[in-house]
């Protein structure tokens, strides 16, 4: 749960409250709640307001900017408490430009607004908090709509929303507090632990965070305050041949060994499992203990070298497959059919042993709910004997399969673009069936496995995919262990349909699957490259030639008194800035992106092109002053003009280069990056000059 909290985008601890844990004393780097940038409480005419800093055009104030990851808001809330010292609510109301939470006359509700092509509103009602601290959390995703969780449990939803026209809160500041109407009866209330994730938490993560925040393991209920809930009983330890393995896995938790030693330990466990039957309870205990050890290993991932990460985690997945296969094959045959199912922070899992005739549906699906699943048609189960099915849906494993060299895969289409790396863009999902199902060898035949996976794109991947100058390739791939190590391959799989948000694949075998994404920049045809290069060189050369003549002319005529005025200085400086910018632009074509000379040239280009705009601004001011104030308009303003023309661009460049040096000279040319917002250090000042 504290790991879920550590992944938050914004966190405000507010006051210390008994019974609610804070993150202040742990090794986190979320500090917005402790500085003036974030949340603060102020008094105005006897009314308490809770303000947030301005987040205009951000995911917080404009949910449309959240992308496919969605957004989550979480806080603890209570009302009807005369002793509350934190925040009186406005009739229990919390409002922002993106959402509104109300508690009036026995009914609570969350209203969520987006301002895309059409104004949309989602609304979900729930029982309002009483005099006990109550945890309210709601998530929103464009494809799933609004979900409201009360005390860790999904309480109500509004998946579709409706078009709405009357919501007129123009401010991008989040605001909680009374509206100030006289004579209105307000409820006293208090808030604590306000947290925002710029992604939608999964139900499991919601449960984990709530459990950690209140500090007890509980049977979650949306109708009772958590101090009155019943704590769960501790599981009974198994007393068989697997007991020492489960105990050893628990004792290894928290040990800070190297990643290679930890992986070796887990592999040894997978090879040394006893050939003894497993009861349902022991199978569940073993699975939980092993996945908990996997979770601890994943915490060591920052100590693994970048290029080695995919190889290490493909070995880890093979180890998990080995253990889960042993569990499925060792289930006690005296208690068949049976199913071992559950969820951990690593994966949702299911181990099922059943007779094919008991499958009275057209297909077996794992997991049974959600948008990511594997579906096996019933006609593939041809055997009359018992079958075992092992399913795993990994929650975070895809994060470790980024920057894969396409030459290290068995995907022929990807290898054709050897300079463009591949990244996993969906959850990893796995299914194994024994005996093997009977599937078509031909991908155009039947039966085939259907795999649907929702894409989990990072903001960078999402912006790259939307960039019209890129082509996005999505591959239905699996980890092929035929040569002993996991290699991504797409043999026997085809992507049947989908879009940027999901993919549907057909495969004629079972293993670990994921959607791999490769972004390929579109290349101009040779004739277009030649034409553009010719236009650039000829145009810049002509510009440099004419600017040189201009500067020489000013120099020759500088002794003539009639031209020795401020317009001469303005034109000369403008010509000098453009001349140097054009010359550096031609020189930049000879440098390779990512090198130090290219970075230096990119900073100089930024400075001189900004200076050209700045001197145009100076000329505008000068002409304006001459028109408005005809007499006496020629008094010297050299100091101000030089400050604007050269000083302002220098300040902007120093700030930009200091804060984001990595954005210069990296993305294909010696200029500012277009992907991380650094380009606005040039575009914004230029647009300001044009507006003026």
From TrEMBL:
<feature type="transmembrane region" description="Helical">
    <location>
        <begin position="570"/>
        <end position="588"/>
    </location>
</feature>
<keyword id="KW-1003">Cell membrane</keyword>
<dbReference type="InterPro" id="IPR000203">
    <property type="entry name" value="GPS"/>
</dbReference>
<dbReference type="GO" id="GO:0014819">
    <property type="term" value="P:regulation of skeletal muscle contraction"/>
</dbReference>
<protein>
    <recommendedName>
        <fullName>Adhesion G-protein coupled receptor D1</fullName>
    </recommendedName>
</protein>
<dbReference type="InterPro" id="IPR001759">
    <property type="entry name" value="PTX_dom"/>
</dbReference>
<keyword id="KW-0732">Signal</keyword>
<dbReference type="GO" id="GO:0007189">
    <property type="term" value="P:adenylate cyclase-activating G protein-coupled receptor signaling pathway"/>
</dbReference>
<dbReference type="GO" id="GO:0007166">
    <property type="term" value="P:cell surface receptor signaling pathway"/>
</dbReference>
<dbReference type="InterPro" id="IPR046338">
    <property type="entry name" value="GAIN_dom_sf"/>
</dbReference>
<dbReference type="InterPro" id="IPR017981">
    <property type="entry name" value="GPCR_2-like_7TM"/>
</dbReference>
<dbReference type="GO" id="GO:0004930">
    <property type="term" value="F:G protein-coupled receptor activity"/>
</dbReference>
<comment type="function">
    <text>Adhesion G-protein coupled receptor (aGPCR) for androgen hormone 5alpha-dihydrotestosterone (5alpha-DHT), also named 17beta-hydroxy-5alpha-androstan-3-one, the most potent hormone among androgens. Also activated by methenolone drug. Ligand binding causes a conformation change that triggers signaling via guanine nucleotide-binding proteins (G proteins) and modulates the activity of downstream effectors, such as adenylate cyclase. ADGRD1 is coupled to G(s) G proteins and mediates activation of adenylate cyclase activity.</text>
</comment>
<keyword id="KW-0675">Receptor</keyword>
<dbReference type="Pfam" id="PF13385">
    <property type="entry name" value="Laminin_G_3"/>
</dbReference>
<keyword id="KW-0472">Membrane</keyword>
<keyword id="KW-1015">Disulfide bond</keyword>
<keyword id="KW-0812">Transmembrane</keyword>
<dbReference type="InterPro" id="IPR000832">
    <property type="entry name" value="GPCR_2_secretin-like"/>
</dbReference>
<comment type="similarity">
    <text>Belongs to the G-protein coupled receptor 2 family. Adhesion G-protein coupled receptor (ADGR) subfamily.</text>
</comment>
<feature type="transmembrane region" description="Helical">
    <location>
        <begin position="671"/>
        <end position="691"/>
    </location>
</feature>
<dbReference type="InterPro" id="IPR013320">
    <property type="entry name" value="ConA-like_dom_sf"/>
</dbReference>
<feature type="domain" description="GAIN-B">
    <location>
        <begin position="348"/>
        <end position="523"/>
    </location>
</feature>
<dbReference type="GO" id="GO:0005886">
    <property type="term" value="C:plasma membrane"/>
</dbReference>
<feature type="transmembrane region" description="Helical">
    <location>
        <begin position="535"/>
        <end position="558"/>
    </location>
</feature>
<feature type="transmembrane region" description="Helical">
    <location>
        <begin position="600"/>
        <end position="618"/>
    </location>
</feature>
<feature type="transmembrane region" description="Helical">
    <location>
        <begin position="639"/>
        <end position="659"/>
    </location>
</feature>
<dbReference type="Pfam" id="PF01825">
    <property type="entry name" value="GPS"/>
</dbReference>
<keyword id="KW-0325">Glycoprotein</keyword>
<comment type="subunit">
    <text>Heterodimer of 2 chains generated by proteolytic processing; the large extracellular N-terminal fragment and the membrane-bound C-terminal fragment predominantly remain associated and non-covalently linked. Interacts with ESYT1; interaction takes place in absence of cytosolic calcium and inhibits the G protein-coupled receptor activity of ADGRD1.</text>
</comment>
<dbReference type="Pfam" id="PF00002">
    <property type="entry name" value="7tm_2"/>
</dbReference>
<feature type="domain" description="Pentraxin (PTX)">
    <location>
        <begin position="45"/>
        <end position="242"/>
    </location>
</feature>
<keyword id="KW-1133">Transmembrane helix</keyword>
<dbReference type="InterPro" id="IPR057244">
    <property type="entry name" value="GAIN_B"/>
</dbReference>
<feature type="domain" description="G-protein coupled receptors family 2 profile 2">
    <location>
        <begin position="532"/>
        <end position="692"/>
    </location>
</feature>
């Amino acid at each position: 749960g504290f790991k879920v909290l550590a992944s938050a985008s914004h966190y405000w601890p507010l006051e210390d409250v008994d019974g609610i844990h804070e993150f202040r004393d742990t090794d986190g780097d979320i500090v917005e709640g402790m500085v003036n940038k974030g949340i603060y409480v102020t008094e105005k005419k006897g009314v308490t307001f809770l303000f947030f800093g301005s987040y205009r055009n951000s995911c917080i104030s404009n949910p449309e900017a959240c992308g496919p990851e969605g957004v989550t808001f979480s806080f603890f809330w209570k009302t009807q408490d005369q002793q509350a010292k934190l925040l009186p609510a406005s009739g229990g109301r919390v409002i922002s430009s993106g959402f509104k939470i109300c508690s009036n006359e026995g009914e609570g509700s969350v209203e969520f607004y987006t301002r895309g092509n059409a104004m949309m509103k989602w609304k979900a009602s729930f029982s309002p908090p009483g005099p006990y601290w109550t945890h309210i959390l709601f998530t929103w995703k464009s494809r799933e709509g609004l979900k409201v969780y009360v005390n860790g449990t999904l309480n109500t939803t509004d998946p579709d929303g409706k078009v709405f026209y009357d919501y007129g809160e123009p401010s991008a500041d989040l605001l909680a507090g009374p509206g100030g109407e006289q004579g209105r009866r307000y409820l006293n209330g208090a808030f604590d632990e306000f947290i925002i994730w710029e992604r939608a938490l999964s139900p499991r993560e919601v449960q984990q965070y709530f459990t950690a925040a209140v500090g007890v393991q509980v049977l979650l209920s949306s109708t009772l305050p958590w101090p009155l809930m019943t704590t769960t009983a501790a599981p009974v330890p198994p007393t068989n041949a697997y007991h020492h393995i489960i105990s050893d896995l628990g004792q290894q938790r928290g040990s800070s060994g190297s990643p290679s030693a930890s992986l070796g330990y887990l592999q040894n466990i997978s090879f040394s499992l006893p050939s003894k039957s497993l009861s349902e309870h022991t199978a569940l205990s073993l699975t939980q203990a092993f996945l908990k050890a996997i979770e601890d290993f994943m915490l060591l991932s920052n100590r693994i070298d970048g290029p080695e990460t995919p190889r290490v985690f493909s070995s880890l997945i093979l180890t998990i497959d080995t253990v889960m296969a042993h569990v499925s094959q060792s289930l006690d045959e005296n208690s068949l059919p049976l199913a071992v199912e559950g969820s951990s922070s690593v994966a949702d899992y299911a181990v099922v042993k059943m007779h094919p005739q008991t499958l009275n549906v057209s297909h077996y699906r794992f997991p049974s709910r959600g948008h990511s699943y594997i579906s096996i048609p019933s006609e593939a189960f041809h055997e009359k004997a018992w079958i075992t099915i092992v399913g795993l849906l990994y929650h975070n494993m895809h994060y470790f399969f980024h920057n894969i060299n396409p030459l290290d895969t068995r995907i022929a289409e990807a290898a054709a673009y050897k300079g463009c790396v591949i990244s996993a863009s969906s959850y990893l999902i796995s299914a194994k069936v024994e005996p093997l199902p009977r599937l078509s060898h031909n991908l155009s035949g039947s039966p085939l496995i259907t795999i649907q996976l929702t894409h989990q794109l990072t903001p960078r991947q999402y912006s790259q995919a939307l960039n019209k100058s890129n082509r996005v390739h999505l591959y239905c791939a699996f980890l092929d262990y035929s040569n002993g190590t996991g290699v991504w391959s797409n043999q026997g799989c085809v992507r049947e349909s989908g879009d940027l948000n999901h993919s549907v694949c057909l495969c004629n075998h079972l293993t670990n699957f994921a959607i791999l994404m490769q972004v390929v920049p579109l290349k101009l045809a040779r004739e277009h490259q030649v034409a553009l290069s010719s236009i650039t060189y000829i145009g810049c050369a002509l510009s440099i030639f004419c600017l040189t003549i201009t500067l020489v002319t000013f120099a020759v005529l500088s002794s003539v008194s009639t031209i020795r005025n401020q317009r001469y200085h303005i034109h000369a400086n403008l010509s000098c800035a453009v001349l140097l910018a054009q010359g550096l632009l031609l020189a930049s074509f000879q440098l390779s992106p990512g090198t130090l000379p290219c970075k230096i040239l990119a900073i100089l280009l930024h400075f001189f092109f900004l200076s050209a705009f700045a001197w145009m601004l100076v000329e505008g001011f000068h002409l304006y002053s001459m028109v408005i104030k005809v007499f006496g308009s020629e008094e010297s303003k050299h100091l101000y003009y030089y400050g604007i023309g050269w000083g302002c661009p220098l300040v902007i460049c120093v700030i930009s280069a200091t804060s984001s040096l990595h954005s210069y000279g990296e993305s294909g040319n010696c200029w500012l990056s277009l992907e991380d917002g650094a380009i606005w250090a040039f575009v914004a000042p230029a647009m300001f000059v044009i507006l003026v």
